[in-house]
Design brief:
CATH superfamily: YVTN repeat-like/Quinoprotein amine dehydrogenase
Number of strands: 34
Strand content: 35-45%
Helix content: under 10%
Structural class: mainly beta
Strand order of the largest sheet: 1-7-6-3-34
Bound molecules: fe (ii) ion
Largest sheet: 5 strands, antiparallel
Radius of gyration: 21 Å
Number of helices: 2
CATH architecture: 7 Propeller
CATH class: Mainly Beta
Distance between the termini: 49 Å
Mean pLDDT: 95
Number of domains: 1
Shape: globular
CATH topology: Methylamine Dehydrogenase, Chain H
Length: 478
């Protein structure tokens, strides 16, 4: 620890254990689970931070563990938790060797390996998405791996019927159109000579419809994008990967360059064929996650793209266990661009600057007009010293001047995208995680999505602690 104040006492406890795998463990319920909540909350996140002599130093380094929290009829079955490590190449080979073999995002060590000298072997720890009859687990880069949606057992690498190979660039946030079942994703080719953004479109069965290569000015780091009606949109911040540094043995983190003077651009392509239609200057900030995007119902030339915009990148703030020591402010921003002129025509902010992340919407409204979203925030943003997520926030574009916030008690830290579960009668719930650092205990929290400030309506404590996760979603029972 540095001499800076500590705004997250005990946070190291959240990274000090290897979480146990579990099968349909029945959870105790404090409070009341809303009666409409039927289905499964899925969560992925980095869970194991040591292997042999290597202790990982970065939040993106840990081996991925997925969780399925099943809400059945509370009168009969209740709530059950299943958790499993994703058994991809990295975990299986390192487990067999009894030591770390592969370089990680933020940790290198003598003799560490890259895949064919250029890519990380994915720890499969960022996100997960149901697709067809499978659940796909994703890491920051690389192909997803297929899991059994019920048991969470790993079936194997998912290569889209042979259309992709282990070196195909592929990011962690595919977009699945709820209307057609099509899956869109991108991946950056970090070539210094011909950097490009690969845009993929797959049909609902995983068959490749197209792969388009869109030229980039430099090999920019990009984590997420937005599906927006007939378009897709990419916020390209001035953050780029120096492949030479990676080849010289640096970590991926130490090979990334932040050069705000290069400016940020919103790249828009047609969904139908992947053709680029606009590249719009949008300032010089950084976006890790989009919130949602859609076409202006009143003007088909206008695209509305909502993002969480940060003053600078955040990956250098993921030091384990001293997270976010100097995290920059960030806020939700609505960008309106005119595709006929390629200009930014409007910019609106929501009044919340506490470095929010993990935005969640009603998934049925992806790519369509919407108002409400949820996210986690860091109350001590702007003050030096380690800190982490301790606020659940509900915001709405209908009233950008005010947000609803639930502040966790001191020593309680939050994890997991606050995934939204709709109530068919209107409204809904959001679900996230809590780690109590003093007691070393984990729980899931359920909130009324439209009254988060009132605190959780149900707390589901766990017998044994669980890692703090990244992305989550709620899949309702059919
Ligand atoms: Fe993400």
């Amino acid at each position: 620890m540095s001499e800076a104040p500590d705004h997250a006492p005990g946070l190291e406890r959240a990274f000090s254990f290897v979480p146990a795998e579990r099968t349909a463990e029945r959870l105790r319920v404090e409070g009341e689970v809303p009666a409409f909540l039927r289905g499964t909350y899925y969560l992925n996140g980095p869970a194991r931070f040591t292997r042999g002599d290597v202790r990982y130093r970065h939040w993106l380094d840990g081996d991925g563990m997925v969780c399925a929290l099943r809400f059945d009829d509370p009168q009969t079955a209740g709530v059950h938790l299943t958790a499993r490590f994703v058994r991809g190449t990295k975990l299986v080979e390192e487990e067999a060797a009894g030591r770390a073999l592969y370089r990680a995002f933020g940790t290198s060590f003598p003799g560490d390996r890259l895949v064919r000298g250029i890519a990380l072997e994915s720890p499969l720890n960022v996100s997960l998405y149901p697709f067809g009859d499978a659940l796909l687990a994703f890491g920051e880069q690389g192909l997803p791996w297929e899991l059994d949606p019920d048991t969470l057992e790993t079936r194997g690498v998912y290569g889209f019927g042979g259309a992709l190979n282990p070196l195909s660039p592929f990011a962690a946030h595919p977009k699945i159109d709820p209307a057609t079942g099509e899956l869109f994703n991108f991946g950056v080719s970090f070539s210094a000579v011909q950097p490009s953004l690969n845009l993929y479109r797959f049909d609902a069965g995983g068959g490749l419809i197209y792969r388009r290569r869109l030229a980039l000015p430099e090999p920019r780091s990009l984590h997420d994008f937005c599906l927006a009606g007939r378009h897709v949109a990419f916020f390209l911040g001035p953050y780029w990967l120096d492949m030479e540094a990676l080849r010289d043995g640096r970590t991926l983190l130490d090979s990334l360059r932040w050069e705000p003077e290069r400016g940020s651009r919103l790249l828009v392509a047609r969904r139908d064929d992947g053709e680029a239609v606009a590249s719009v200057p949008v300032g010089e900030r950084y976006v890790l996650h989009g919130i949602n995007a859609f076409e202006d119902p009143a003007d088909a030339d206008r695209l509305i793209v909502d993002v969480l915009e940060l003053d600078r990148p955040v990956y250098d703030q993921y030091s384990v266990p001293d997270l976010f020591p100097d995290v920059a402010p960030g806020r939700p921003v609505r960008l309106t661009v005119d595709l006929s002129t390629g200009a930014l025509v409007d910019r609106r902010e929501i009044a919340y600057e506490r470095a929010p992340d993990f935005p969640a919407i009603d998934p049925e409204l992806a790519g369509r007009p919407y108002e409400d979203f949820w996210m986690l925030g860091i109350s001590h943003t702007g003050r030096p010293g380690r800190k982490t997520f301790d606020q659940v926030v509900h915001a709405s574009w209908a009233h950008p001047e005010r947000v609803e916030v639930w502040q966790a008690p001191p020593g309680h830290y939050l994890g997991g995208e606050p995934a939204f579960a709709p109530n068919p009668a209107g409204g809904g719930a959001v679900i996230c995680q809590r780690f109590d650092a003093e007691r070393g205990e984990s729980a899931f929290l359920v909130f009324d999505a439209f009254d988060v400030a009132a605190g959780p309506v149900a707390v589901l404590p766990l017998e044994r602690p669980l890692h703090l996760g990244f992305h989550a979603l709620f899949a309702g029972s059919a």
